[in-house]
Amino acid sequence: MRVLLVDDEAELVEALAERLSLRGIDADWAVTCKDALGKLDTKKYDVAVLDVKMPKLSGIVLKKEMEKKAPGMGFIFLTGHGSEADFRAGTAEAGADYYLVKPVGIDELLKKMKEVVGE
Amino acid sequence: MRLWDTIKPPFRDSGEDAPVASRHTFDYRRIWKLAVLLTGGVALLPLIVITVVNYTAMQQAIESEFQLRTARIVSNTRRAISFFLTERKSALDFIVHDNNLESLKDPERLAGVLSDLGRSFGGGFVDLGVIDASGYQVNYVGPYRLEGKDYSGQRWFEQVAEYGVHVSDVFLGYRQVPHMVIAVRGDTEAGSFYVLRAALSIRPFESLLSNLELSGKGDAFLINREGILQTPSRHYGDVLGELPLPVPEYTPQTQLMEESNAAGEELFIGYRYIEEGPFILMVIKKKKELMKPWARIRLELIGFLLVSASVIMAVILGMSTYMVRRIQIADQKRVATLHQVEYANKMASIGRLAASVAHEINNPLAVINEKAGLIQDLFRLKKEYAQDERLLGLVDSVLASVERAGVITKRLLNFARNLEADVEEVRIEEVIEQVLGFIGKEAELRDIEVRLEVPEELPPFECDRGKLQQIFLNIINNAFAAVDEGGRLDIRVEGKKNDFVVVTFEDDGCGIPEEDLSRIFEPFYSTKTGQGGTGLGLSITYGLVQEIGGRIRVKSRVGRGTRFKVFIPARSVGKEERV
Fold first, then answer.
1. Would you say residue B250 has pLDDT above 70?
2. Per-residue pLDDT tens over the stretch B74-119
3. Which residues of A touch B365 (CB under 8 A)?
4. B19 touches chain A (CB under 8 A)
5. Strands B219-224, B193-201: pairing kind
């Protein structure tokens, strides 16, 4: 399973990517949208985990851009803002697969990713 | 005082000692006083002035009416008496000129004259006597035996001799019957004189005076100039008695005066000196009797004034109280609304603050979570750490703490989000739990036992989650304020009863005194004045309950605790669509 993690908080994505790698998952990370879209050119991913609120570009817009470049990807949104229900309502039109509120346990995230990929 | 307590306006007490609200609002007591005084003054003053003017004018009119009537009676009667006397003097004068002494000495002739006088003048003449110049009565006709009487040296005789005529007072004389005398002088051819003397009964005067129609227990009689009664009176003594009143001063006209008698009664006296004789005509009326009709009019006037003044005052008091009460209610509503808006703003600010704090904390928390998780992963993979229980324990504890912090920030976010929520599907136990999650720490710290009882299978219903949350927050906050350390708060949710879900909050706190109980939902009613209470918490709660279409009831006993029951309309989810 190939995963792309996007969050403006480098400390977070770095650690998360390493933890996922330790669990045998091919995880890359990016801290800017440009970076993230660039990664799509070189590699095909199964799932993207996006922070909703990032400087310059929101996760929702980023998701649309990414879908254009690489159709068929799964998306999981992460946020530190608002409750899960709130989050879901706000991102409903974006049509992500899951919405998780930070901080998230690694096992839960892993479970959701597997569900998205269909493993 | 008890009457005053029941009718006094409710804003009567809003003075310096009144609760907080009055500092932001008008001085109703002053407005009320001003309204009552001004309208009362404007309405009553003209009424009083007109009544007083009317009163005096009427009194004067009635008095002068009586004066005029009395004066008319006096002068008419005087004319009659004067005419009576003049007529008789003229008759006697005619006789002495038509006859001479010789013929009048003839008893038959004199008797004929007396009978002619009686026929022509209709009584009054009692007898006739002829007296010669020496004062000796030479001839007499009449019912008494007075022939040969000697009148020489008597004053009246001398007066007649000198002035030619004399009208006497009423006296008893030789015959011991009250009578008066008119005497005229006749001259003889020899140059001497004689006197024709007629005695007159006072009966004509009596009948004249007693036939007068006098109101006011009136009395009409004659006195002489020494104050001796010349005719009998009704109230002031019989003929020849002395009048118990001073003799009025001489004036040539009819005169009116006021005097009081021995009993202190005010008298109204009209009098006239009669020029033809030594008499004064007196007409005396009692003022009290005279003014009797006035007393009735006066009573009516004063009664009218009192009744209309009372009605006006009652209307003014009622209207002023009603208007000022309206103003007060509107004013209180205004201030309450202002506070409610303030409260809503405050809640919104708290919500925003909570949300941003939670968000700001969530991001570093997520980093800690991942870093600690990575450490845990690395330890587990590397053999030298995998067995180190202490290190793994430390990491576990960091992760557990992160999870705890995460629960708190999620609660904060939930709470903040719900403050601005609209009508949506709610699970009541979820709302209560959220509120308890938000302020439950206080209960924990103060060792307050909070029990929540929710029936199983309570279906979710549609309601304004934010308002519900605030209602519960306020009531639970109040309960926490009322209970002591180690106290208890029972929250029971009862299933639908007539489309209402009933939530009961029962504490074992200090309770609310009965006199406060009926007022606790009023805005600004606070028993925590000076302790930071605005007196608005429960009034806002009440307003919120009404806004969601519910009801709130309270029961309390001092020292035993308080029970709030909130009835929440529970519209089933999707019901609207089905209808």
1. yes
2. 999 999 999 989 999 999 999 999 888 888 889 899 999 999 988 8
3. 80, 102-103
4. no
5. unpaired
Whether the CB-CB separation of A16 and A29 falls below 8 Å is answered with yes
The pTM of the whole model exceeds 0.80? no
How far is the C-alpha of A22 from the C-alpha of B490, rounded, in Å? 50
Structure tokens at B398: 């960091």
Q: How far is residue B323 from each of residues B23, B32, B301, measured CA to CA in Å?
A: 20, 9, 32
CB B182 within 8 A of CB B167: yes
Contact predicate A101/A53, CB 8 Å: no
Helix axes B28-98, B292-381, angle to 10 degrees: 180
Q: Which positions in chain A touch B360 (Cβ < 8 Å)? A: 80
Which residues have C-beta within 8 Å of that of residue A69, sequence separation ≥ 6? A37, A40, A41
Residue B502's DSSP bridge partners are B494, B567
Of B349, B505, B365, B359, the closest CA to residue B436 belongs to B505
* B527 confidence band (pLDDT: 50, 70, 90): low
Q: CA-nearest residue of chain A to B352?
A: A82
Cα(B369)–Cα(A11) distance, rounded to whole angstroms?
A: 11
Going by C-alpha positions, the residue among B94, B77, B250 that lies closest to residue B165 is B94
CB contact under 8 A, A103 and B378: no
